[in-house]
Amino acid sequence: MASTTTKLMTFAEFEQLPDREGFRQELRHGELIKVAPPKMMHSRVQWQLRRLLERAAGTAGIVDKEFGFRPVAEHEFRIADIAFVSKARWDSAKDYLSGAPEIVIEVLSPSNTVTEMLDKEKLCLENGCQEFWIVDPSLHLVKVSTPDGHTITYRAGQEIPLPLFNGGCLAVDTIFTPAEG
Fold first, then answer.
1. Are strands 97-98 and 61-70 parallel, antiparallel or unpaired?
2. Which region, left, alpha or beta, applies to residue 160 given φ > 0 means left and ψ of -120 to 50 means alpha?
3. Considering just the CA atoms, what is the radius of gyration of the chain in Å?
4. Distance in angstroms (rounded) separating the CA atoms of residues 44 and 63
5. pLDDT in tens, the chain (181 residues)
6. 131, 103 contact by CB (below 8 A)
7. In terms of C-beta density within 10 A (0-12 exposed, 13-18 middle, 19 or more buried), how is residue 105 classed?
8. CA 165 to CA 27: how far, in whole Å?
9. Residue 123 in 3-state DSSP?
């Protein structure tokens, strides 16, 4: 029985695709993936995290949402729900950030699969990411993984240490509390 070989899309081919309104596109292991736009709860958590982390980061770097990056040179273009990039890397980046941001945060959505999250976590932690966060808005918890294989889950009433921001902590409760002023 003959098999059909499917050609992997290169980043150069991906970059030539037209922009599509209504969804984002990622290149995952050479495969084009359409990603639906975030729903309101997802956007609220993203907005709150960006706001809180920008304050904590100060001048250490940039915090942004829907941040595109190239964790490896070919066949990959990913988008982080929230990313922190050190000032030095931000200033030296050209068209796209090479490697993963220092912190990649994914806010879980109903469309996310366990396999997808584990794959992104592995890819990021193997390519420069120092902390990979998975934020679960329904359970009000944050799982933080590091390249050394350690994972800690933080829940309501706990604080997440922020070693990349010259110390400090982020209270889990503030992530899921509606912002005031």
1. parallel
2. beta
3. 17
4. 16
5. 555 556 888 887 887 787 766 568 887 888 888 887 788 889 999 999 999 999 999 999 999 999 999 998 788 899 999 999 999 999 998 888 999 999 999 999 888 889 999 999 999 999 999 999 999 999 999 999 999 999 999 999 999 999 999 888 999 999 998 765 4
6. yes
7. buried
8. 30
9. helix
